[in-house]
Amino acid sequence: MGKRVNTATWSDKYKRWQVNVQQDGVRRSFYSSTPGRTGQHEANAKADQWLDNGIEGGSMRVSDLYEDFVASQKESTGQSHWRGVESRYKHYIGPGIGTKRIDRVTEQHLQDIINKAYSQHGLAAKTLMKYPR
């Protein structure tokens, strides 16, 4: 379960319940316009769901999961495919998030990898549409 220590509060100005939560440096607000305690419970439930949304076994590092992934790719695909997978990991994904725990990787981390591949390495937009595969 999430680590929410606060509860939703009613805002008279906006006529809604609001709860602010933060996880791994990312702050989100959740709302409910349902009056009464039902609305407060709705906003709190939305926040808890976001905090709890993760991956089982998420304490593993991306680099460890990558090793398992590339091994399965070598067994089930051709050499031209898995070599591309290895190359993308070595140049872009590994340096960006290789040491992170998998449950701590956010969409923004993935977007940063794509942005860096475009700006620093000049990869084409069509190529980047495939990332981070």
Describe what you observe in this structure.
The protein has 133 residues and is an alpha+beta fold. 52% of the residues lie in helices and 14% in strands. The chain has helices spanning 37-52, 62-76, 79-97, 107-121, 125-128; strands at residues 9-11, 16-23, 26-32. The protein has a three-stranded antiparallel beta sheet with strand order 1-2-3. The chain is elongated, with a radius of gyration of 20 Å. The chain starts with 8 loop residues before the first strand and ends in a 5-residue tail after the last helix. The mean pLDDT is 85.
Condensed summary:
With 133 residues, the chain is of the alpha+beta class.
- How much helix, percentage-wise, in residues? 40-55%
| Gyration radius from CA atoms, angstroms | 20 Å
* Main sheet record: 3 strands, antiparallel
- Poorly predicted ranges: none
**Secondary-structure element pattern, one letter each:** EEEHHHHH
Strand content: 5-15%
Structural class: alpha+beta
Annotation keywords:
single chain; 133 residues; alpha+beta; 5 helices; 14% strand
Question: What layout of secondary structure does this protein have?
Answer:
Blueprint: E1 9-11, E2 16-23, E3 26-32, H1 37-52, H2 62-76, H3 79-97, H4 107-121, H5 125-128
Antiparallel strand pairs: 1-2, 2-3
Helix pairs in contact: 2-3, 3-4
